[in-house]
TrEMBL record:
<protein>
    <recommendedName>
        <fullName>Nucleolar protein 14</fullName>
    </recommendedName>
</protein>
<dbReference type="GO" id="GO:0030490">
    <property type="term" value="P:maturation of SSU-rRNA"/>
</dbReference>
<feature type="region of interest" description="Disordered">
    <location>
        <begin position="1"/>
        <end position="24"/>
    </location>
</feature>
<comment type="function">
    <text>Involved in nucleolar processing of pre-18S ribosomal RNA. Has a role in the nuclear export of 40S pre-ribosomal subunit to the cytoplasm.</text>
</comment>
<feature type="compositionally biased region" description="Acidic residues">
    <location>
        <begin position="308"/>
        <end position="319"/>
    </location>
</feature>
<feature type="compositionally biased region" description="Basic and acidic residues">
    <location>
        <begin position="339"/>
        <end position="351"/>
    </location>
</feature>
<dbReference type="GO" id="GO:0030692">
    <property type="term" value="C:Noc4p-Nop14p complex"/>
</dbReference>
<keyword id="KW-0690">Ribosome biogenesis</keyword>
<dbReference type="Pfam" id="PF04147">
    <property type="entry name" value="Nop14"/>
</dbReference>
<dbReference type="GO" id="GO:0032040">
    <property type="term" value="C:small-subunit processome"/>
</dbReference>
<feature type="region of interest" description="Disordered">
    <location>
        <begin position="135"/>
        <end position="156"/>
    </location>
</feature>
<feature type="compositionally biased region" description="Acidic residues">
    <location>
        <begin position="352"/>
        <end position="370"/>
    </location>
</feature>
<comment type="similarity">
    <text>Belongs to the NOP14 family.</text>
</comment>
<feature type="compositionally biased region" description="Basic and acidic residues">
    <location>
        <begin position="259"/>
        <end position="298"/>
    </location>
</feature>
<feature type="region of interest" description="Disordered">
    <location>
        <begin position="259"/>
        <end position="440"/>
    </location>
</feature>
<keyword id="KW-0539">Nucleus</keyword>
<feature type="compositionally biased region" description="Polar residues">
    <location>
        <begin position="325"/>
        <end position="334"/>
    </location>
</feature>
Length: 885
């Protein structure tokens, strides 16, 4: 039994194995192609030692049928519709992804090169064919259907009766049989009159309807609170508090925005406009100085054309004068040159003789007031009318500045003449009482004009020419306040901008040099308050000049600093004069101080460092000078956070001078301070004194040290130390920097100083102590060595002998030869594929030709068969006819 089971089992496995082997495709040995070799080399691998040319050929033909054959069928055909929309050929995209891709492409196409700098949104949003701007007009358009509601009765169209009579009833040639029948012209006139009447009635009805509609709307607004209870009454509704965020949001929402069409003006255009503005203002000032006043009413009158329709007309008796004519045909508006004067303001020629005489007297009184002065100032007016604008400006400005004495004489004569006219008017008042009102008006007018001329004479000129020498600068600034000096320099820069002339840039550079010399001179006059005031006013103009010609500004400042440094080196232990401090302050305002190295700022820092280390502070002036230099160092290093030891050392020396010294124990201090110096010790109790704790300008000139200065010097020192502590807060050596300061603070007697000084001192000492406690020192540790890498052996590569001879070439040439060989192989493969494509297309064309020939032969056979059938039928008919005959 067991043997039988085993036999059955083996039989099932044999059947299954046969089925599996039947499914596996076996290769036909006749299809396998083996490449023969002339010489067999052991270990050599051949890429194409055997292959299946039939299978590969079938694959190639199948591939060409799917690609080349499809293109061949569509050759020279253009009647195929292709969906080229974005995303349609990509089956993996959903509808939303396709819509997003199309929207992105449209936005990218709209964002062209011309709209790169367009800040506004050019996308126009529409709704039902209308833009949002058109929709939001909030107008009340009436329907056009209202015109056709009344039918033909009120419409302005032709009547049916008229159409029947005029068009289809014969017109003029029709015989009505009625005497006095109307002609065609009368009918047309009647039609026009009737049409106008109907239109007027229709317009009246429409206006009445609109009025009632508006009244109904206004009544409905009053009824809304009664109908709708949810609407709050104004009295009952509490005001909703608006949040600050909502306020800012609304302000930003309604803020004015720029448009792409608003082109920004260039620097040259702005300079040109500023110059023209100043020239116009100067011209007006000169006119006011001469007593000429332009009548605003006459200049505002505009001539009205006979064809003017007076759109948006609003009558104003003060400003508008209607054009009219008198009996003689003369207009009431008289044109004199470029100005239009009203006839009502001039002399009336058509009045009586008495009135003419009085008017002539008034006119002579008003016209003779400045007639001689006009002749005296004719030269300046001739220069104003020259065509060349720049020559005009230069001559006018030079005349303004060079002939001040002549102008003062001119104004004096003008005022004297006005006074004479006033006296003449008084005499005329006593002689003729009938002209009381007119003489008083003339007097008031002349006094007003005199006041105006005085005011114009005191005003600063609006245009200035650049000075050629330093003496001209002094003359211009003479007896001028610091504010006026600043305005003069500003107007000089605007009137002589580098873009308005070729040599203006060099002239402005010279003006910068003259201003530095001017500051040096006023600083040497010992008027320190005025000096600092002038400096604060002209610093903005100095900055503008340095930006217009930077190279000149750099050279000028460097030369000044060199000169002052040479003067300082003659006596290194004495502080230099005050102009040095001013120039160092100018440097901090004009140039950047945060650079690592600057050709002007860096030498200035070295100069300040030398003064703080070498100069000995003995008097009040020296201590104030040193504190000023430390303030400049703080200003120079606030951004770069650079450490200058001389500044902290000087402040520590000031603290040392406030400590009382005893003969037994001396407190060490760094030079230039002496260990025995106690010039700032406060012996008087000033704890309850209220005073200003800031240093004053007068401290730079005082020699003897006062009690108030001791308090102010200590307070300023403490403030500066706090600022330096904030700057050096990131330094790892901050505790060592302020070590001497902490030591000196502990020994200063605090009880004599005011409470504010005591608080500042305690605040500084506590902060220094806190930084010392919070600092963590890291122990010095040797640098960890990198782990040593394991020793690696290079592989022993042995060259395999090859029968081929290889030339010894460079690496570049070998790579090039390799690429050329690869290119040759690819070219051969491409030519082989092109040749096979041609063969494939040739076979296709032959098949098509054979098929078309077969179809043609079948058609010919069919035609011949049909022709033979017709011929047989024809022959049978012919035979029948012969039989009948």
């Amino acid at each position: 039994m067991a043997k039988i089971k085993n036999k059955k089992k083996n039989l099932a496995e044999h059947i299954n194995s046969k089925k599996k082997s039947a499914n596996v495709k076996t290769l036909n040995p006749f299809e396998v192609h083996i490449n023969k070799e002339k010489m067999r080399v052991l270990g050599k691998k051949l890429k194409n030692d055997r292959g299946l040319p039939g299978v590969s050929r079938a694959k190639a033909i199948k591939k060409r049928k799917n690609t080349l054959l499809q293109e061949f069928k569509l050759q020279n055909k253009s009647n195929k519709f292709l969906d080229k929309r974005i995303g349609e050929r990509n089956a993996g995209l959903t509808e939303e992804d396709r819509a997003m891709a199309r929207f992105t492409a449209v936005r990218a196409k709209a964002h062209k090169r011309k709209s790169i700098f367009n800040l506004a949104d050019d996308e126009v949003l529409t709704h039902r064919g209308q833009t949002l701007n058109e929709i939001e007009k909030f107008d009340d358009p009436r329907s056009d259907d209202e015109d056709s509601l009344d039918g033909e009765v009120n419409s302005g169209k032709l009547d049916s009766n008229f159409v029947e009579d005029a068009h289809f009833g014969g017109g003029v040639l029709s015989k009505t049989g009625i005497e006095g029948a109307k002609s065609h012209k009368d009918l047309i006139n009647q039609l026009i009159a009737e049409s106008k009447r109907r239109k007027a009635e229709k317009q009246k009805t429409k206006e009445k309807t609109l009025e009632l509609t508006e009244k109904l709307d206004s009544d409905w607004k009053d009824l809304i609170p009664i109908v709708n209870k949810s609407v709050r009454q104004p009295n009952e509704s509490s005001k909703i508090e608006v949040d600050d965020y909502d306020k800012v949001m609304r302000e930003l929402k309604f803020e004015a925005r720029g448009h792409p069409s608003d082109r920004l003006k260039t620097e040259d255009e702005i300079a040109k406009e500023e110059k023209e503005k100043l020239e116009n203002l100067e011209k007006e000032r000169l006119d006011r100085m001469r007593g000429f006043v332009e009548d605003k009413k006459s200049t505002s009158v505009k001539h009205r054309s006979a064809d003017d329709l007076d759109d948006d007309f609003a009558y104003d008796s003060d400003t508008d004068v209607m054009l009219s004519y008198n009996d003689q045909g003369e207009s009431n508006i008289v044109l004199t040159g470029d100005k239009i004067n009203d006839e009502n303001e001039d002399d009336h020629q058509n009045e009586s003789a008495d009135e003419e005489e009085s008017d002539e007297e008034i006119e002579t009184a008003s016209e003779d007031d400045l007639s001689d002065l006009k002749e005296e100032s004719s030269d300046s007016e001739v220069e104003d009318e020259k065509p060349n604008k720049q020559d005009k400006e230069e001559k006018e400005v030079s005349q303004l500045e060079s002939s001040k004495t002549q102008k003062t004489d001119l104004h004096k004569r003008c005022l004297e003449r006005i006074d004479d006219k006033v006296k003449d008017s008084k005499k005329q008042k006593t002689e003729d009482s009938s002209h009381n009102g007119t003489t008083e008006d003339i007097k008031a007018d002349l006094l007003k004009r005199k006041e105006m001329m005085e005011k114009a004479r005191k005003e600063l000129p609006y245009t200035f020419s650049l000075p050629q020498t330093y003496e001209e600068v002094q003359n211009v600034f003479k007896d001028q306040s610091p504010e006026h000096q600043s305005v003069i320099i500003e107007r000089m820069i605007k009137c002589n901008h580098p873009s308005l002339g070729e040599n203006n840039k060099e002239k402005l550079g010279m003006l910068f040099v003259y201003l530095l010399q001017y500051i040096n001179d006023i600083a040497s006059d010992n008027d320190i308050k005025n000096c600092f005031k002038i400096l604060s006013c002209i610093i903005p103009q100095l900055f503008d000049l340095s930006q217009l010609n930077q190279e000149n500004a750099h050279k000028s400042i460097v030369e000044v600093i060199k000169e002052k440094h040479l003067e300082y080196r003659r006596n290194k232990k004495v502080y230099p004069t005050l102009e040095v401090v001013l120039f160092l302050k100018i440097v901090s305002c004009l140039f950047t101080t945060s650079d690592f190295r600057h050709q002007i700022v860096t030498p200035c820092i070295v100069f300040i460092d030398q003064m703080l280390y070498k100069c000995k502070p003995k008097t009040e002036k020296d201590i104030a000078y040193g504190l000023f230099l430390v303030t400049l160092i703080l200003e120079y290093t606030s951004l770069s956070k650079r450490y200058l030891p001389a500044a902290v050392s000087f402040l520590a020396g000031i603290l040392h001078m406030t400590i009382p010294k005893s003969g037994v124990r001396l407190i060490k201090v760094l030079p230039p301070f002496r260990s025995t110096s106690s010039a700032l010790v406060l012996y008087k109790n000033c704890s309850s004194v209220c005073m200003s704790l800031k240093l004053e300008i007068s401290d730079l000139t005082e020699i003897e040290i006062s009690e108030d200065f001791k308090i102010r010097a200590l307070y300023t020192t403490l403030k500066l130390l706090q600022e330096f502590k904030l700057i050096f807060s990131d330094y790892s050596s901050r505790c060592e920097i302020f070590e001497n300061v902490t030591h000196y603070l502990e020994q200063i007697p605090v009880s004599n100083y005011p409470i504010e000084v005591q608080n500042e001192m305690k605040k500084l000492s506590d902060s220094l102590e806190k930084t010392k406690q919070e600092r963590k020192l890291d122990y010095i540790v040797m640098e960890a060595k990198k782990p040593k890498a394991l020793r690696l052996y290079e592989p022993n590569i042995q060259k395999v002998f090859d029968t081929k001879k290889h030339k010894v070439t460079s690496r570049e040439k070998a790579e090039r030869d390799k690429l050329l060989h690869k290119l040759k192989r690819e070219r051969k493969g491409a030519l082989r594929e092109i040749r096979r494509d041609k063969e494939f297309l040739g076979r296709i064309r032959i098949k098509q030709k054979i098929q078309s020939d077969m179809e043609r032969k079948e058609k010919v056979k069919q035609i011949f068969s049909e022709a033979s059938i017709q011929q047989s039928e024809l022959n049978s008919l012919d035979r029948k006819k012969k039989r009948k005959k």
